User: What shape does this take?
Amino acid sequence: MTGTGLRDAYTAATMQHCDILIAPRWCIPVEPGNTVLTDHAVIVTNGAIADLLPRQLADERYQPSVVIERPSHVLIPGLVNAHTHAAMTLLRGFADDLPLEAWLRNGIWPAEKRWVSAEMVRDGTELAVAEMISAGITCFSDQYFFPEIVAETAVDRGMRAVVGTPVVDIPTSWARNFDEYVQKGADLVHDAFAEHPLITSCFAPHSTAALSDEAFTELRVMADQLDVRVQIHLHETAAEIEAALRTTGKRPFERLLDLGMINSSLLAVHAVFLTDSEIVRCVETGVAVAHCPRSNLKLASGIAPIARYQAAGVKLALGTDGAASNNVLDVLAEMRLAALLAKVEADDAAALSAFDTLRMGTLGGAEALGLAHTIGSIEIEKSADLACFDLEHLNTQPIYDVTSQLVYATNAAQATDVWIAGRHQLEQGELVNFDTGALLARSDEWRQRFASTPS
Amino acid sequence: MTGTGLRDAYTAATMQHCDILIAPRWCIPVEPGNTVLTDHAVIVTNGAIADLLPRQLADERYQPSVVIERPSHVLIPGLVNAHTHAAMTLLRGFADDLPLEAWLRNGIWPAEKRWVSAEMVRDGTELAVAEMISAGITCFSDQYFFPEIVAETAVDRGMRAVVGTPVVDIPTSWARNFDEYVQKGADLVHDAFAEHPLITSCFAPHSTAALSDEAFTELRVMADQLDVRVQIHLHETAAEIEAALRTTGKRPFERLLDLGMINSSLLAVHAVFLTDSEIVRCVETGVAVAHCPRSNLKLASGIAPIARYQAAGVKLALGTDGAASNNVLDVLAEMRLAALLAKVEADDAAALSAFDTLRMGTLGGAEALGLAHTIGSIEIEKSADLACFDLEHLNTQPIYDVTSQLVYATNAAQATDVWIAGRHQLEQGELVNFDTGALLARSDEWRQRFASTPS
Assistant: This one.
């Protein structure tokens, strides 16, 4: 045996098997921050990230079942959509350009009351999941009726989801009263999806106006017992705060504080308006904020002072909100808009950098959902939830700074590949796990039903 | 001859030849307003729109050389980018997340001083034109050095352009002093491209700070003599207005008014800050505003109160500004952002409807550039400048309202076809007139040069 042959034999004997070797041109692991790796490979085995190392070393150390070459692409942690109402994709553009009250009272609510059902939630969630995976999103936090159907649909399509079980005190097609909402939520946490690796449940009281103090207290006890998180629309509009002051004498945040709900398991959705002392409380207690900039513009709610929240150290995530108020489920676009709005709001073009918003759309989302041990960055032992974008397009050339190009110039349609728990769900721009034609046909049938709703 | 045969023969004898019959699922002609036509056809002959009529009638009346079926698409007038610096696509992402002064003084200006040349303008403009056509844009208004190269490149690629010839009082690689800037601009108007159907020239003094009163007076005389329009960056930032007040005792708008420049041939670019009386003056005199919402956010300039401008009756167009401050040339995205920002700025979710912004991005742009007789709407005898977007994508389904879906949910990558003066420049998503690989390679060479600039 020659020296070379001996070395080859030794190398082969010491090489490790792995499932997938992904070799993008660039990799932004998010943790550590402000880092762009060139010519590195991500090694995936058993659905987890097994290694992240220079390509040359990877070729020496690993024998992959599959090699994925992406020579003009950037690989990032899968995007996290920290707030949506997935099934409402069926109401995309249903009632646009209306004042908020008219939008809800004459548009959305009558349509929902007439048509929301398990079947509608299944089809709407499937459309949403297909759209999100196509846009590089690997995890979404949902808040809608029939959450067990949301969970089931996510599992069927290989998507990771945080399923918020709605809690209100009005009867709907899903539950009759507060007790039944909470019980059905608790069942979801404990039963069907308790051990499923892709699904987490949480309680999602709609807003402070939706529940009495007694109900919130009961919910808090239940959430503590079950050890589940809570998400709530909070300070979305000035009108919400004014109404609360009129009816309870307290701002919604203050009321939740008095009720013991302001703690590290709370996700405050929107939080467009926080006073300085509320910001301090968020930092002290670990409350996270799901910033939904596009929805806040479209419904004329306001521009959250995100640069101030960030400077104070508030945990920040990004959400699309539902497609009825956005109108797309595109976290990459929310990242760009968040960065741009923060600059004008703070009167500082250096506010909220491209990397800051990328972190919000990935690891920040994971932290806000209590999933940072599993997802949000490309780190060894985390789940292989990954997204890949091709930058070899006219609108993303030339490239001085990959992170800046991703945030300020890349279009969601440039997502080519998505892996969730190591499963390839988007491959070279094609969804692996959907019959898109049938899905769009069913979506159009729902459109016909919704459009027939008397207003 | 049977009755049917006779009818066929008669029909054939009376049918008119045409070059192209375009049959989209929907057509939004923009004029008349708020109109969506279904199952109509656009007839194109000799580069112009010859007819717009129900598909069935079109099949009875016309014998086209080419039939273009677009069964899940919406056809609109080509988008108009009323303000850009095309060559600066080569500086896309060059100096992001910097305060405005540092961005200009340490980033953009030294790089431009070192590298701007006819060759750089040719390659940068070609990249910009390719990106714009791919995004459904059929006309752009430019402001950069070597405008004759901008015009030449536009003509080479079949793009319509309004070429602003720069006027400043500092020496650059293009001209040495005020007189030479004006003379070279006048030559461009009168010579090479005077009669070219795709090219219009205008004077583009950079800003009021760039010229003395005497120079503006001379420029006005020249512009009147040549009958050309003028475009200028005006009230882009609060700092610009404050500096003018300090140095001249007047706001820039007031100074231009005193100099006789506030008239219907002026395009005020940005105009983020206009007082009520300035708004009235714009309406009275016919000054148009090129609103560049994304650039205004990115450089932290501010949010123009567009709903107020619109209510007053100001002529409104949309611009992307240069890719160094945006970072893409995507009028569809500017339309969406304009509508969203107007809502939050006016505290009214009903402000600036989807159709209002579509009009700004088409006919409004044409009016602002003095081209409304030729482009901006799908009307008989106008030039066949058209754009087609495929709505059969996950993010644009289901469809309740086509205009709303186009503005709030459609991605520029959904542009499938573009015609400019009847020439098919984007065909099923592919650029007809570019060697994209060679173009991107040259763009990357420029990146290497720019990146080597000492700051």
